[in-house]
Amino acid sequence: xxxxxxxxxxxVGDGDLSFSNAVVNHIKPAKLxxxxxxxxxxxxxxxxxNALSSLKKCHVEVINCFDVTDPLCWQKLAAHQHSFDxxxxxxxxxxxxxxxxxxxxxxxxxxMNVLNRALLHQFIKYANKYALDKSGPMLCYITSKDVKPYRxxxxxxxxxxxxxxxxAGQMPFDINQFDGYKIRNVDRDxxxxxxxxxxxxxxxxxxxxxSDELSTHLTKPAYLGENHCSLCRVGPFIxxxxxxxxxxxxxxxxxxxxxxDWQAWLTDFYNHTL
Length: 274
What we know:
The protein is an alpha/beta fold and 274 residues long. 31% of the residues lie in helices and 15% in strands. The protein has a 7-stranded mixed beta sheet with strand order 3-2-1-4-5-7-6, with helices on both faces. The longest helix has 24 residues, at 250-273.
């Protein structure tokens, strides 16, 4: 993950704040504001080792109870609105619903796949609307695992449909760059073993290869190119027969269903927010 020390950074959904703390210690950015979904009290109860006091000592402002899907929470940024160069969401995941009843009521109309895509879509939308400085690079970073179910969210594809900010490329996330950072389980005081992470970059601006150091770190995978299936991340197809066989396969049909569900959510969301 490339971070310019001159950038003004906002972190969101940073469970135990260990990522924000690692950024302060190792990047020493021009400005950092950290935010968490949980309250300070919940963080203290949930995570035995958290960075609340460490960030306070470093005079880093922490905004608690910050829900990235709620525009009112973004307005809590107050004087910090439109003052950041990059907003970072590390390993986002909708928390598990407790009990069968809660799960069924929340997934009655849509799937967990769509709910997670919706979380990320709204993050990009509101970060651009409320947090990013229009005179800066206007970057959203989403770091996710390169395994199922995360890789089935089509982050580099239809996630940003309807948004001005578009996928600009991706880069590997190396946790060793951020000493002290623990990737937490969303619901409990356990950190998960490091799986390969990818940081996906979104911006409404063009990233210039000539003037932007970030561009040297970004790549786009081959499966986004011609003669591949970007949904299933397979290819290149040697012959039309191979491609047709794949398009008719159960796996591809499942991915198409997820895309249809996602488009339905987008239509419903924008019908209600217009």
